[in-house]
Amino acid sequence: MKHPQNHETVQAPIHSGFGSMTTAKEVMGNRNLKGKVAIVTGGYSGIGTETTRVLAEAGATIIVPARSPEKAKAALSGIPNIELEVLDLMDPASIDAFAQRFLASGRPLHIQINGAGIMAAPLRRDARGYESQFSTNHLGHFQLTARLWPALKKAKGARVVAISSWGHRYGGVDFDDPNYEQREYDKWKSYAQSKSANALFALALDKRGRSHSIRAFALHPGVIPDTELGRDLNETELPVVVKRLEDGQPISSDNNMMFKTVQQGAATTIWCAVSEQLNGMGGIYCQDVDIAEAVPADSNKPSGVWPWARDPELAEQLWQLSEKLTGVKFPI
User: Fold this and answer.
1) Given the residues 44, 130, 191, 285, the one annotated as active site
2) How far apart are CA 234 and CA 229, in angstroms?
3) Does the pLDDT value for residue 222 go beyond 80?
4) Do residues 87 and 41 make contact, with C-beta atoms less than 8 angstroms apart?
5) What is the largest CA-CA distance in the chain?
6) How far apart are CA 255 and CA 168, in angstroms?
7) Beta strand pairing status for 284-287 and 250-252?
8) How many CB atoms lie within 10 A of CB 96?
9) Which of 60, 242, 295, 31 is nearest to 155 (CA)?
């Protein structure tokens, strides 16, 4: 299933040998990442903390940007090779300032993990009037990646990993009204839109990055109850009861939903960031430490990637929209 550098990767499982219960540390194995530099947004909360820990303990230098560096400092205490920075993904000036500071260091960027995000938030807007989930989850990372592009090229072999979600199945990007200026706001549709955007962005980014040895991936990490992602939800919106096995493995009261630990939830991110199994590949959507199956629009499967999150024409349309909304173009 490996392809030459300039060819597209087939959206189909490669039977990696891992699975849904694989942990991030198991994926990392005995790799030595000394000399590698990574930026992990959202790297101080939930699966982001585990992602940071596993990369750092393998020897990489990890820059963790945060709106609240003090909170990040407490969460990452004891983890080696960490640099804390300030970044607000809803603030274009903050994004530019962070990127400028990193570029000024002269370092290459080998791994960029776009993991920060919000879910099912009530209607909020950034200073430009853009809806918060689309602004944070997609537009902020679009601008950040554009600004860091020189450092990604400098790595001469970089990977950009976008944390999407199975929630993309609830809908794609509304190109006519992405910021809910005309239609009634639906927080779950908005979340789905932002997660579909994450997948489409990886597809379009990989197309542009291949010739510079920059490959991009999107993924669903799994359903992980032990994070703050659902902080905007109340108990009536969380009907699934979390139970625990003796070993601490979370299980759901809904037999159709499988939960993961934080360690398992970070596994696919680590795989996309470092695995040699993905050499020469990119522009794909992954889950359970493998390439996900492409499913039809009417699929009711509990896994896979839906058509509106893997359509090259929609990916290009999103790219143009993102440039327009941010005023930012990639220096490709």
Assistant:
1) 191
2) 12
3) yes
4) yes
5) 52
6) 21
7) unpaired
8) 15
9) 60
Residue-range domains of the chain with CATH? 24-326 (3.40.50.720)
How does pLDDT run across 286-301, given as a tens digit for each residue?
Answer: 999 999 999 999 999 8
CA angle in degrees (0–180, nearest 5) for 52-80-142: 35
Start-end of H helices in 210-311: 262-265, 267-274
Contacting residues for 121 by C-beta, under 8 A, at least 6 apart = 132, 133, 187, 190, 191, 232
Give CA–CA dist 199/168, Å, rounded.
9
DSSP single-letter state for residue 58 = T
For this structure, is 130 an active site residue? no
Q: Evaluate whether 191 touches 119 at the Cβ level (below 8 Å).
A: yes
Measured N-to-C along each axis, helices 140-154 and 312-326 cross at an angle, to the nearest 10 degrees, of 100
Indicate yes or no: pTM above 0.85.
yes
Q: Which residue's structure tokens are 């789905």?
A: 192
Q: Which two tokens stand for residue 70?
A: 């003090």
Adjacent-strand bridge partners of 1: none
Q: Which amino acid is at 95?
A: I
Count CB neighbours of 84 within 10 A. Answer: 17
